Amino acid sequence: MPLNHAAPATPSPSRRHALATFGATAVLGACAAVAPGPADPVLRVEASPAPGGQAPFRHIATSVGRLAVQDLPPLPGAAATGRQTLVLWPSILADHGIYRAQIPVWRQRHRVIVIDGPGHGASGPAPAGFSMADCADAMVGILDALGVDGPVIPVGTSWGGLVGGEFALAYPRRTRALVMLNTPVFVAPQGPSLSDRFVVWGARWLHGTTLYSDGVARAFFLPSTRARGGAQLDAFHRHLRDADGAALALATRSVLLDRAPLAPRLAGIEVPTLFVAGEHDGMYPLGALRQAAASLPHGRFVALPTAHISAVDAPEGVTRLVAAFIDTLS
């Protein structure tokens, strides 16, 4: 079912059911985390309430849309020694909620800036398809809007890891270090698979269904994580159910189908880099990721017993691993 950039016609109910049935198994193993010109200047910053009494989102206009940002200062009493600014960007088909366990701990010492990608979470839609470099430019615009001019540490999962890699390549003086979690730095030489295309199509037409969200969850999380359930998994499913399908599909297509490979350029990332992969990630083979990460000049590769979203499957392990990595920078 080839896709193009034009808006797809609404399928008939019978065809929609047939496609959903046909793609059910594909989506279980294919949901993955990965245009305009240069980034436009930030146009405005608008504050809006965040749920649960958290710090408010700031909606900052960038070339990839109005992105929701939370700027979380270190908690009161945090030591100034070794303080860094972390910039978090999540996976496709997820929002900042995947960092639910990490944010409170990292804030004990560091400033944490959290960004929802276009078409995800509280962010608005992208105006058009985009590249990972466009997202990196958007990150720079957000930092400028927040008055952050010193070097930062991008911490990205999947899509977010790709954005962080592009940021480190394009803005080395603004990058202190880099954390790439579960990041698909390569692309298939034969091009996107049928199952990849189904993931994008499903993001448009099936995102509100249990079929689709359960399929994404099977691809993203360990069986034990799904069995555990809880507020974080509930929020993950709710995010997909409540998403704007057109905006979600555009972003998913840009990341999953249209992205350029990052692996051939990893050798150009000069900052210390922590590269984390999941031993049970069925979408991206551990050996291929290990081989790609070996080209990082100052890289450290760590495999965790997780699926695709290590921050959720192994929340304490990821929290400690990243904190310890940051401590080595002091």
TrEMBL record:
<dbReference type="GO" id="GO:0016787">
    <property type="term" value="F:hydrolase activity"/>
</dbReference>
<dbReference type="InterPro" id="IPR000073">
    <property type="entry name" value="AB_hydrolase_1"/>
</dbReference>
<protein>
    <submittedName>
        <fullName>Alpha/beta fold hydrolase</fullName>
    </submittedName>
</protein>
<dbReference type="InterPro" id="IPR000639">
    <property type="entry name" value="Epox_hydrolase-like"/>
</dbReference>
<dbReference type="InterPro" id="IPR029058">
    <property type="entry name" value="AB_hydrolase_fold"/>
</dbReference>
<keyword id="KW-0378">Hydrolase</keyword>
<dbReference type="InterPro" id="IPR006311">
    <property type="entry name" value="TAT_signal"/>
</dbReference>
<dbReference type="InterPro" id="IPR050266">
    <property type="entry name" value="AB_hydrolase_sf"/>
</dbReference>
<feature type="domain" description="AB hydrolase-1">
    <location>
        <begin position="85"/>
        <end position="313"/>
    </location>
</feature>
<dbReference type="Pfam" id="PF00561">
    <property type="entry name" value="Abhydrolase_1"/>
</dbReference>
